[in-house]
Specification:
The protein is 42% helix and 18% strand. The protein is an alpha/beta fold.
């Protein structure tokens, strides 16, 4: 089988007993960086020395099938440098190839920067969306943020320290001056820090220079107050532009807080009228 193994995101004390047992018995480990994994084995006092296979962004396309085939004969443990493989890290391609071949895939749960940042952000946690890293190019980044401006769920992003100030500036422009944001830095590590405020308040801090691993949690957009008739008109406009009725209703419902089902029924009734 394929075993996705979550590794500590900073504090080695977060390594589970199950993770250590699996590494102690592993024959093959696919690692994002084999040197990092070797240091992890040493730090966890794992005496086993499994066969290490590099699995990273540049080789996953052709390694995925090879690892899935290998997993038909023996267990293959997949690890990233930190956290859960396949979540903004190599691993998805291997899982997809394994599923296609009918190979069992399981995971060892463990530390997650996404969930930890969300939990301690002070922002709503009942519904959220993980957006990964923002684009490096300013124009692409602004376009992505513009597309998310009406997203009602709490949003979680990864960002590099060098681009944090620029991204916060763009968030302020795209999401509005009052949108609440939490920047979580060096989670589980010695200098763990959470800064909360609006984009403009946080930019000044970020411009002074920030180091470490960064997770940005952003409050979702408040529902737009519109009448049922106006919402129906928005649905009809989306349908006229080629959007499926069901998808159009879901989009307008997310932006307005109205019921998607009610919008759907109203749109059908308007068609029959």
């Amino acid at each position: 089988m394929i075993i996705l193994a979550a590794t500590p995101i900073g504090n080695l004390g977060d390594a589970s007993r199950r993770l250590i047992e699996v590494l102690e018995n592993a024959e093959v480990v696919a690692a994002e960086d084999t040197r990092t994994t070797q240091r992890l084995l040493q730090a966890l006092k794992v005496e086993n020395r499994p066969r290490l296979i590099a699995l990273h962004d540049h080789n996953e396309k052709h390694k995925a099938a090879e690892l899935a085939e290998l997993a038909e004969q023996q267990d293959v443990v997949v690890v990233s440098d930190a956290g859960m493989p396949a979540v903004s890290d190599p691993g998805y391609g291997v899982v997809a190839a394994a599923v296609e071949r009918g190979v069992t895939v399981t995971a060892i749960p463990g530390p997650s920067a996404v969930l930890m940042a969300l939990a301690i952000s002070g922002l709503p946690t009942d519904r959220f969306t993980f957006e990964g890293f923002l684009p490096r190019k300013p124009g692409e980044r602004r376009s992505m943020l513009a597309a998310l401006a009406n997203e009602p769920r709490t949003m979680v992003f990864f960002e590099s320290p060098s681009r944090l100030a620029s991204s916060l500036t763009d968030m302020g422009a795209g999401f509005g001056a009052d949108r609440r944001i939490a920047v979580c830095r060096e989670l589980t590590k010695l200098y763990e820090e959470v800064r909360r405020g609006t984009a403009s308040e946080l930019v000044a801090w970020a411009e002074q220079g920030v180091k470490g691993e960064i997770v940005v949690v952003v409050e979702g957009a408040a529902p737009v107050s519109v009448s049922a008739d106006d919402a129906l008109a928005q649905v009809q406009a989306l349908v006229a532009s080629g959007t499926r009725l069901k998808d159009a209703c879901a989009e307008v419902a997310a932006a307005t807080g109205l019921s998607s089902r009610d919008l759907y029924q109203a749109a059908l009734a308007a068609k029959r009228a």
